[in-house]
What does this fold into?
Amino acid sequence: MSRVFAQPFRFIAKTMIDFALPPRCPGCAEVIDEVGAFCPVCWGRMEWLGNSGCVTCGLPLAATEADSCARCLAEPPGLDRMRAAVAYDELPRSIALRLKYGRKVALARTMARYMAPLRNDALITPLIIPVPLHRRRLWSRGFNQSGLVARELARAWGREFDARLLRRTRPTQSLKGMSHNQRKKAVDGAFGIAQKERVAGRDIVLVDDVLTSGSTAEACAKVLRKAGARRVELICWARVVRPSQLMR
Ligand SMILES: [Zn+2]
Ligand SMILES: [Zn+2]
It folds into this structure.
């Protein structure tokens, strides 16, 4: 079919599908008005983190802190900026798991929709890349859930996306239960870059589904910086936040 006809046809087909299947909330399956949005009840159940907080790590600031938190000032993290849409909790967790094990692309779009406002407008033509899986994991799962989210986010921002540039060169074990130093050691040197010249001088936005300690993203940032990246930032769907960090 020629391009002239393909466009309206696709539009009609999409309209028919939208008409046949009313959009449902990805949290509770309640019928909603807008595709990819949460219903007001589910929306209210989640702790949205937004763009405020420490300029670097994004965590809420104490009354005595200006734009950086004391921790970032004392020990600057390996990432220039970290943001997450929601605090990791029951519902954000179930959304992330359903994407990871169910390959629900619509969920990746929903996540990206709520991550998109966390964009840093100061970045110069950023390149969007997912935190990679090792190829063995990629084969067994068939896809990288962070890659699906990164692609949707790049699409929402109208930015370049590359899922092959950054690679996990060796498999890493689960970081669960490890101390900060153990985690750092476990992921150090586990990443490599396919074409260093594509990274040199660029602003990079790393995308991940869930942010726990940040060790994995920091190891990614380390190789990207070594290859000459100007800035490396991280955007996630959900982030593990201790209640004390939210109460500040
Ligand atoms: Zn809902
Ligand atoms: Zn901070």
